[in-house]
Structure formats: structure tokens, C-alpha cells
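User: Can you predict the 3D structure for this chain?
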Amino acid sequence: MGRIKTGFTLVLVFFTLVLYSQKKDSVKVHLNHYTLTIGTGWTHYINNLDYGVQKIQQDFAGVSCKFYWEPEHRLSLGLETGYYQLFKITDQLNADTSVKIERTVVPMMLLARMRIVDNVYLGAGMGLAFITNKASGANQSVITKTTSLSNFELSASYIYPLSKYWLVGGEFKMFHFGNLNDWMYSLQATCALRL
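Assistant: Here is the predicted structure, written as C-alpha cells:
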């Protein structure tokens, strides 16, 4: 009977040590990170209206800013905003009058991103877009502002860690603006600070 009690006590002590060591290791592994990412690069706008090929400019530089909460598993959640010019049209009506039309957008997206393999991520987002249209000519200017509620984006990115805190990479993403029923593509270089 004494041997059974001794054996049982040793098994309990062993399991207690194993459980305690696993709990301690899991606390070390499951740390949260926060990442602030800034990106800039080329954007191209695809619209469903016919303005005339010679008069519309659809390629611009865009800027984005993202904030991610990154637990140690593969899924990250975040917020994104930015500034993108979608198109610009300049036309000369006569010798004295020229007309310029521009459209810009500021998205506000909720993001989910998943690491597929080392340094490669796929992401998706949805949210609002604040669209500004500006038309000017003949010493007059008209500005209209619209809020698009049903927008989404898909992205693929490669992020390389330079150190514990600094990361660089590239990202390709597609936006769909529900209010306009139009698409925008973006290819950006990114720099991130992980805290």
C-alpha cells in the first residue's frame, strides 16, 4: 500500500511539473505584437465610364497607413487608411477655357491578414471610402463628397524582417468601391515598425 501511495505521489508531482513548464513556455510563445506599416507606390484605376482614352490619366502614386495587432498565431487584425487619386481629366474647351476633373479616395478599412508561409501574407478588408470629386474651369470650382459604404480589398504581401523591430517588403492589393462599381490596383513598397 505504501508503494502505491509513493508511486501515485510521484506521478502527481511529475504531471504538476509538466503542466507548469508548459504553461510557462506558452506564456513566452503567445506574446502580442503591434505593427505600424507605411506604404507608397503605383496605383491604377479601372472605371466603368468612357471618358476618351487620350484625356484621362489613371496612374498615380498612392500612400497607405496600416496598424495591425499580431498575436503569435497566423492571423492578424488591423485598420487601414490612405490617400489615392483615382483619375484626372484635363480638356481644353476653347482657347481661353480649360476644364479639369479629379477624383480622390480615402479608405477606412478593417483588415484580416494571414501568414501563409514565412514572410508571405494574404489579406482581406472591408469598410468605408470617402470619395471626393472636384471639377474646375472657367474660374469656377465644384466639389462633391460621397461616402461609399460597401467596399472591400484583397492583398498579397511579402514582408522581410531586417531586425527585431524593423521590417520592409512589398504589397499588391485590389480595391473595389461599391458606390462607383470600380476597381483600383496598387503595388506598394512598405516599411513597418513592430512593437
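The beta strands are 33-46, 56-57, 59-70, 75-92, 98-117, 120-137, 140-161, 166-177, 182-194. The two ends are 57 Å apart (CA to CA).
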